[in-house]
Specification:
The protein has 295 residues and is α+β, with helices and mostly antiparallel strands. It contains eleven helices and twelve strands. The protein has one domain. It is 37% helix and 25% strand. The strands form two sheets. It has a ten-stranded antiparallel β-sheet. Strands 7-12 form a two-stranded antiparallel ribbon. Helix 2 crosses helix 3.
Length: 295
């Protein structure tokens, strides 16, 4: 569920003294101006896997709560396993030793789920994950053959879809879909302002609704076989699955015209049942969230 977070301090009156106290952190890295001997900002340290930075005007704490939990319990840097509600609450409690951290404003938040699938997620990504909201991906990272990721950038959120099994060399197939909120307004409007708000199951359910809405906006199609589709429909499909068609070719057309083309596309998808992969992934995401929120 909850993974990466960033918490920003505007008031560092309690935050900085706590971080700069050697009883709390054995190592705090600072910048020393060699000529004057003046110590400059930023100050940097870590609480296990969490990065902690004190700046001249404030400070922040950031990283993956999921990885933090795994590091605390097994000293492993991973987030491919399940991160249940009880573990989330335990992790929030762990970081609450930092003054006011759980009541300080969240500015970034990542919501993601790992699901086991019956074939390599890399195959699904390459053949089926095509667009989000009729826009092509902005990045397709290969990680030197160690992973496969498609990323869709938007002004206030980022969507990442990737092969978690290949990333961690797992013996089973894991597909990950995640939404990173890069502006707080989208999660503020469902009642999430700080880490403590993430202990509310109702808030997590509201976040999941947004998450699922973003997934529903994805274009994920089964493999298209020319032999099983009428030629006229096949030619339309070739046009419709090309992001350039939506982003450039009909961009200047009226909203009514663009909607008519979308409806034609949806009719073809339904006519030939090309959305079975997407329906199965959605079912697994809902099933996984239901499990995590209740454990």
């Amino acid at each position: 569920m909850i993974d990466f977070v960033r918490i920003n301090y505007r008031d560092k009156s309690e935050f900085e003294p706590y971080i700069d106290n050697p009883d709390n952190f054995r190592e705090v890295f600072k910048v020393l101006e060699s000529n004057t001997g003046e110590v400059l900002y930023p100050y940097r340290t870590r609480l296990d896997k969490m990065d902690i930075v004190v700046t001249e005007k404030g400070g922040y704490v950031k990283n993956s709560l999921h990885k933090l939990y795994n590091y605390i319990h097994s000293r492993e840097d991973k987030n491919h396993n399940d991160f249940e509600y009880s573990k989330l609450c335990e992790t929030i409690l762990h970081v609450s030793r930092i003054p006011d951290l759980t009541h300080t404003s969240l500015t970034n938040l990542e919501f993601g789920l790992n699901i086991r699938v019956d074939r390599p997620a890399e195959e699904i990504l390459k053949k089926s994950v095509l667009m989000h909201n009729y826009k092509g991906y902005n990045h397709n990272r290969k990680f030197n053959g160690k992973g496969e990721l498609k990323q869709f950038d938007h002004s206030n959120y980022v969507i990442k879809v990737y092969d978690k099994a290949k990333q961690y060399k797992l013996e089973y197939n894991v597909f990950r879909f995640e939404v990173k909120f890069t502006r707080r307004r989208d999660f503020n409007k469902v009642g999430v302002y700080n880490l403590d708000d993430l202990k509310s199951k109702d808030n997590l359910k509201e976040l999941f609704k947004i998450y699922l809405m973003r997934f529903d906006e994805m274009l994920i199609l089964d493999e298209i076989s020319e032999d099983s589709i009428e030629q006229l429909d096949y030619q339309k499909l070739l046009k419709f699955v090309n992001p350039k068609y939506w982003e450039e070719d009909i961009k200047t057309m009226s909203g009514t015209t663009r909607m008519r083309h979308r409806n034609q596309f949806n009719v073809i998808i339904e006519k030939y049942g090309l959305d079975s992969t997407k329906k199965e992934l959605r079912r697994l995401l809902v099933e996984k969230f239901d499990y995590l929120i209740n454990h």
